[in-house]
Amino acid sequence: MKIGSENNLKIEQIPCLDDNYGYVVHDPETGATASIDTPEVAPINAVLAERGWTLTHILNTHHHFDHAGGNEALKAQWQCRIIGAANDAARIPGIDMRVSDGETFDFGSRSVRVLEVPGHTSGHIAFYFCEEGAVFVGDTLFALGCGRLFEGTPEQMWGSLSKLMALPDETVVYCAHEYTQANAAFALSVEPQNKALQARAKEIDRLRASGLPTVPTSIGRERETNPFVRVHSAHLQETLELSGGDPVAVFAETRRRKDHF
Ligand SMILES: [Zn+2]
Questions:
Q1: What does the alpha-carbon distance between residue 126 and residue 129 come to, in Å, rounded to a whole number?
Q2: Is 120 a catalytic residue?
Q3: Domains in the chain and their CATH numbers?
Q4: Residue 119 Cα to ligand 1 middle (Å)
Q5: Contacts of 200 (CB under 8 A, 6+ apart)
Q6: Which of 22, 53, 160, 193 could form a disulfide with 117, with the two C-beta atoms 3.0–4.6 Å apart?
Q7: pLDDT tens digits, residue range 39-61?
Q8: From the CA of 64, how far away is ligand 1's center (Å)?
């Protein structure tokens, strides 16, 4: 942990497109500056200009257009280094550095650990800033939700969510979409007895009514309220008519119901 707030990692959350969040992360000690995904070029450039930062890196969570669509334009402009999944390199435009599960790389004076989290796409990765306790999860985990299974099995996605849930409770989770209010309605439909969820849903309504973001979240808060990681909840299992069911089956049924909610 760095001493003194002036040395703390700076994280800018940037609304992009309809409901995406981009993030620009800046290390004041070295000037290293990364865009976590590139949903939209203009708002990312606006933050860089406002702060006077030079983009040195792009860290891609996965290949979808609303995550990697700005790679080539930003690389042409800034000559930044693009880091993405080794096992999905063919789909990451402009990739320079290929990374795999468990690998740690330097970003300025910080270290970043790569977590492979397949399910939404086969090559999805998350970036864990170890010293800061911050994780950028793309479309794998959302506040009160998780990504759709476009390219993976429930078993894979459950493994990926479990990997994220193994991080400390206080870890700050930066998700890539503002889907929380709709997710809350679904969560309440499958676990209406959950008091922490009831309170959180009210807080989310209040934030959204004021036009405020509900992201980031934290691992601990998701553990208490997100049905997709609460497969052991007796109430959730009861709603799904899967009491005593195995985690993957409960997760799969939760995901299936959300797809039709
Ligand atoms: Zn996606």
A1: 10
A2: yes
A3: 5-175 (3.60.15.10), 181-259 (no CATH)
A4: 10
A5: 144, 184, 221, 225
A6: 160
A7: 999 999 999 999 999 999 999 99
A8: 5
Task: Find tokens 């669509």 and name the residue.
Answer: 69
CA of 29 to the centre of ligand 1 (A): 32
pTM attached to this predicted model: 0.97
pLDDT greater than 70 at residue 1: no
The active-site residue, picked from 63, 66, 88, 124, is 66
Interval 166-206: pLDDT, tens = 999 999 999 999 999 999 999 999 999 999 999 999 999 99
Task: Specify the pLDDT at position 7.
Answer: 81
User: Each residue of 99-158: pLDDT tens digit?
Assistant: 999 999 999 999 999 999 999 999 999 999 999 999 999 999 999 999 999 999 999 999
Catalytic residue among 26, 57, 63, 177: 177
Active site residue 62: yes
